[in-house]
Design goal:
This is PknH-like extracellular domain-containing protein. By secondary structure, this protein is an alpha+beta fold. The chain is 31% helix and 35% strand. 31% of the residues are buried.
């Protein structure tokens, strides 16, 4: 499991979920599914869909120009990866004190 902050996207003016959605609209994501985490907009996304292998990435928009990703890899239980990414993202938001 890992968490990443997309600060480079913000520097390029492509921050937040809007920047990621623009990439999706360009057809560069094989997998895109919008959701919500603790009241924040979010989307599962991947340039190559590896959910069957137990890999899941969840991007969460925490400001108009900032997002973070929660990544999970559970090779021995692939169906649990996206739930684990969601729980990780919720934990990040709770730690930062940002529940809406």
């Amino acid at each position: 499991m890992s968490v990443g902050v997309q600060s480079e996207n913000t520097k390029r003016g492509m921050g937040g979920l809007d920047g990621l959605y623009a990439v999706y609209e360009q057809g560069r994501y094989e997998f895109w599914e919008e959701t919500e985490v603790a009241g924040y907009p979010a989307a599962f996304s991947a340039t190559v869909d590896q959910r069957a292998e137990g890999r899941c990435q969840l991007a969460v928009g925490i400001a108009d120009d900032m997002s973070f990703t929660a990544n999970a890899y559970i090779g021995d239980n692939p169906d649990a990866a996206c739930q684990a990414a969601t729980e990780l993202a919720a934990g990040v938001i709770q730690t930062l004190g940002g529940d809406r």
